[in-house]
Automatic annotation (TrEMBL), chain B:
<dbReference type="InterPro" id="IPR025192">
    <property type="entry name" value="Succ_DH/fum_Rdtase_N"/>
</dbReference>
<dbReference type="GO" id="GO:0009055">
    <property type="term" value="F:electron transfer activity"/>
</dbReference>
<comment type="similarity">
    <text>Belongs to the succinate dehydrogenase/fumarate reductase iron-sulfur protein family.</text>
</comment>
<dbReference type="GO" id="GO:0051537">
    <property type="term" value="F:2 iron, 2 sulfur cluster binding"/>
</dbReference>
<keyword id="KW-0560">Oxidoreductase</keyword>
<dbReference type="InterPro" id="IPR004489">
    <property type="entry name" value="Succ_DH/fum_Rdtase_Fe-S"/>
</dbReference>
<dbReference type="GO" id="GO:0051539">
    <property type="term" value="F:4 iron, 4 sulfur cluster binding"/>
</dbReference>
<dbReference type="InterPro" id="IPR050573">
    <property type="entry name" value="SDH/FRD_Iron-Sulfur"/>
</dbReference>
<dbReference type="GO" id="GO:0022904">
    <property type="term" value="P:respiratory electron transport chain"/>
</dbReference>
<protein>
    <submittedName>
        <fullName>Succinate dehydrogenase/fumarate reductase, Fe-S protein subunit</fullName>
        <ecNumber>1.3.5.1</ecNumber>
    </submittedName>
</protein>
<dbReference type="InterPro" id="IPR017896">
    <property type="entry name" value="4Fe4S_Fe-S-bd"/>
</dbReference>
<dbReference type="Pfam" id="PF13085">
    <property type="entry name" value="Fer2_3"/>
</dbReference>
<dbReference type="GO" id="GO:0008177">
    <property type="term" value="F:succinate dehydrogenase (quinone) activity"/>
</dbReference>
<keyword id="KW-0001">2Fe-2S</keyword>
<keyword id="KW-0479">Metal-binding</keyword>
<keyword id="KW-0408">Iron</keyword>
<dbReference type="InterPro" id="IPR006058">
    <property type="entry name" value="2Fe2S_fd_BS"/>
</dbReference>
Amino acid sequence: MELAKNLQKTLNQKANPKTDLYVDLAESVTGIILVGFLWMHMLFVGTIYINNGVLFNSLSEGLDKYYLAQIGIPATVLVILIHIFMAGRRAPMRLRDLRIAWRLTKSLKHTDTWIWVGQVITALIIGIMASMHLWEIMTTWPIEATKSAHRVALDGIAFMGGFSIKYYLWFYVALLLAGEYHAGFGLYRIFVKWGWFERHKMGYVLKGITLIILFIGFGALYMFIRLAEMVPLGGALH
Amino acid sequence: MSRNITLSIFRYNPNIPGDTPRMQDYKLEEYSGMTLFVALNEIREKQDPTLMFDFVCRAAICGSCAMLINGRPGLACKTLTKNLPSRFTLMPLPVFKLIGDLSVDTGTWFRNLQVRTESWIHTNKKFDPNALEVRMSNETAEAIYEPERCIECGCCVATCITANIREDFIGATGINRVSRFLIDPRDERTDREYFEVVGNEDGAFGCVGLMACDDYCPMEVPLQKQLALVRRKMAAAGLKLDLKGMKIS
Amino acid sequence: MSAKHTHITDVVVVGAGLAAERSAIEAASAGLNVIILSLVPPRRSHSTAAQGGMQASLGNAAMAKGDNPQIHFEDTVKGSDWGCDQEVAKMFTETVPIMIRQLDYWGVPWNRVVAGKKKLPSGLEVEDTKDKEGLITARDFGGVAKWRCCYTSDGTGHTVQFVVDTVVCKMGITVHDRMEAISLIHDGETCLGVVARCLRTGDLNVYLAKSTVIATGGAGRLYAASTNAVINEGTGGAIALNTGLVPLGNMEAVQFHPTGMPPVWILMTEGARGDGGYLLDKNLHRFMPDYEPKKKELASRDVVSRRMIQHIRAGYGVESKYAPQHLWLDIRHLGRKWVWTNLREIATIAMNFNGLDPAKDLVPVLPTQHYTMGGIRTNKHGFAYGLKGLFAIGEAACWDLHGFNRLGGNSLAETVTAGYLVGIQLAKYTLGATQKFDYKLVEGFVKKEEERIKNLISGKNGKENVWEIRAAAQNAMMDHVHIFRTGKSLQEGVAKLQELYKRSLKIGLRSSGQGANPELAQALRMPGMIRTSLCIAYGALMRTESRGSHFREDFPKRDDVNWLKRTLAYWKEGADLPTLDYEPVACPYMPPGDRGYGEATAPAKGK
Ligand SMILES: Cc1cc2nc3c(=O)[nH]c(=O)nc-3n(C[C@H](O)[C@H](O)[C@H](O)COP(=O)(O)OP(=O)(O)OC[C@H]3O[C@@H](n4cnc5c(N)ncnc54)[C@H](O)[C@@H]3O)c2cc1C
Ligand code: HEM
Ligand code: SF4
Ligand code: SF4
Ligand code: FES
């Protein structure tokens, strides 16, 4: 047994002993980049507050004009892919592991462990919804306040016939919550793992930031709805 | 004041042919100051002499008696029954090999860990019986004592999802143990040598940061601090060093 | 059944505590093959529970200035009430500073001297000088002239055991944990090894060795209330006694520690008083200075324990939910920071078990069985009397460093020092010895154990309940063989124990005894435990004087004319009482005199 295991290990020798280090660093670094991206993204979206979306539109134009979008979007996609690859390997994959993890989590009733389970679940949610979101944005390029507003507030009606369920609104609410949860606690755990802050104090700071971002996000959604009611699709702002 | 309590205890002795895992209930009358040490011994002496469990110091200093108490890991000897509901479960720690009922083989697991992580002072100096001890600041001595306080109870290992699903992961206690040598000026190991031992997925980089270990360590060893310390040191060492031809564990 | 495995090696060490592992290191360093057996993984041995520290005359701390092995020697002899072997005490006190430094070299994080002026809780001002900064420091302990107790916070036993075990790991010494030695194999002259029962599977194993070392620790659990771990049942001494050839020395010398915490009887280290703690009575009066004006709370343990009981008898005991009668330990004035760093272990214990925070609460204490001065009698090189190839060290042995009272901190120090010194002799002996193989003989010993097991399971000899007998025996020791002893009460105790001994031979299991059955394990130990208890009780009955911790109310004086001797207790086959023999105690360096504390010096005042 022991011999076979050692033989396995020898045969399995990684070309570079630093692989595990790089993988770990990559997980944290992509995590931080994505958190940065998400928060920037929310701040951008938040500009909808200002001037009824004029700034929002000019930012979007800027992204286009200086090819920031053309580079930024594929780069982000790449980072996300790396992140999924690096971080995903930590999640229980085999059925047996899932069962063990789930049983232990239920038994422990331990907050941080539950949070992690939440993170794995939100990761799945984000993985699916963010690709849909990206697809939607790419196929309706460029980004414009009114377009976004109508997508949020009105498209649902179009899809659903007579029902006034705001399909995209709920989509965004879900993505926002999942994204914020995942990013907020992800960042918390990076700090915990690298020991930059005392664990319990840091928890409060991050929860604070997450609340602010959520506030911005929901506010933005609200602004979109108002905008959609005020301005017809393709109509001018002001 | 006294109440009746029911202990629902995991029973299974792999050494008895035909025995199967099950939960068995035992009723007891609780009295003031009753610990699980008292309760379990009373069950063994008055109700069921086959019940297996481990106690040594019964003072929360030897690490023998860790088990899942109502689902959470803890030292049975220092757990007062009055802090538990009137019905609760006792299960053996996961990860470790079951010896029988609540008794698990932490000894072998920890022995392997010590050998794997080479947890002893590495030095080329020879001991000179005529010389004074090498001076050290009291602060350093106290810093070494912090991680050294681990009693190898296994609570941190049993709660760690990573350790539960990855057999080779050395757990918080293992990383903590290495940290103790890392900060000890008497250990002459180079960064490279430490990197060989813990600079990998089975060591520092395997930890996901769930901190169940930190929250459930009965000795309150500052595990977050020690885990992070090793991770930082190993990352810095790894990025700096030329590790060509290094032994891979 | 028959033995599942037979292991052949040069040295088998029974026990994995500090004494055991330290001797194993020495034997392995000489190139010998060593196997260590233990009830529990080495790092769970009771040595890890020692809190206070280890005595060695390094003389680094301010209050240690001028200390040397000679002063340590004198303190030890006085502490022992002239009962110890002075040659052993000499060797010991001269070697122990080297041991401390070697432990430091191996990695023990000893607390160090911090230079600067300090005000002690007693009000005394001292200064630690710059030239000593960074060297190993020491704290005060009972019965000493100088501060010499080296420590790591209050986890000294823990750190020392862990570090010694790292060396065992490094050297690759084989350890078989959960393996209980249940009898010695011998041919009447030489010890050939042990029969052991595996506590994982219940199988019997045979270990054959040129040398067998017994380092099984104390026997506190012969008493119902003890500070000892629950595995300290004195089984090592019992299996030696069972040979009928090896005597136990001075078993009546049992130490009661002044500060066990009721109702769980966990130890509050002497370091608490060493660091300046007080003992208070029901009026919150600090009473020790009334009895012991010089040493106050820090007279030797036997004296403080007796003074406490005396004070309680005088009507000053506290009645509370913790115990019907007890006293208080007060360390509040040391300050929160001191309590929760230097006395953290005991602060945690008080918190865990009684919900008390010693930084602001008083802690209930009462003298509690703590240490077994007696044990397998050996010569000064650790060779057991009666059988060749058998050695004993540590608390299980009567090397006789402690005589009739052990000084706090001298026992951890003994474990490593004896482990080292005896280890050298043991290695020398083993290298010159040849292995004896006598399979018939070995088979006979295994058969005997198998018979016992079979009979216990079938109930052939009777149906006595092992737990009831154990409880009764432990209570008999509490009632009759405690701090204050009288001929009449001891006589009753001996009679009770004899009765229980007969019953213990008729134990029958209630369970099936399959696998590593805990009831069977206890039943196998029971007769040996009561035999050992009888050695204590009967030895105490016959010793008609008071010396150290052995205090006879009907013979309150030390009697150097008749009793400057050591008790040797043998157990002859079929007997129901030990056979006592005596040997003289030589005093080559320090003739019997006044201890400077205790009843002889400061007659009881009581208030
Ligand atoms: C609470 C407490 C605090 C103390 N504090 C101090 C202190 O501050 N300073 C000091 O100097 N002393 C102190 N002492 C005393 C000191 O700790 C012990 O005397 C010493 O540690 C004994 O060491 P040992 O190696 O002889 O035995 P132990 O450490 O008790 O080891 C005994 C070993 O034998 C094994 N064993 C037993 N029976 C068998 C068997 N039948 N088969 C196989 N293995 C067996 C056990 O598993 C164990 O490994 C304290 C004692 C107690 C109880
Ligand atoms: C906006 C997008 C995202 C952000 C901001 C983000 C951020 C983070 C952060 C900061 C962490 C912690 C990393 C660490 O512990 O080192 C993390 C962990 C994780 N992420 Fe993401 N992530 C995002 C998208 C995704 C996606 C799309 C997936 C997969 C489908 C995913 C899967 C995971 C998993 C499984 C973990 C847990 C890994 C672990 O516990 O080590 N994430 N994420
Ligand atoms: S922090 Fe690391 S070691 Fe601790 S429980 Fe989590 S994964 Fe395990
Ligand atoms: S680190 Fe804490 S929980 Fe883990 S083994 Fe050590 S004492 Fe137990
Ligand atoms: S019995 Fe020692 S920690 Fe519980």
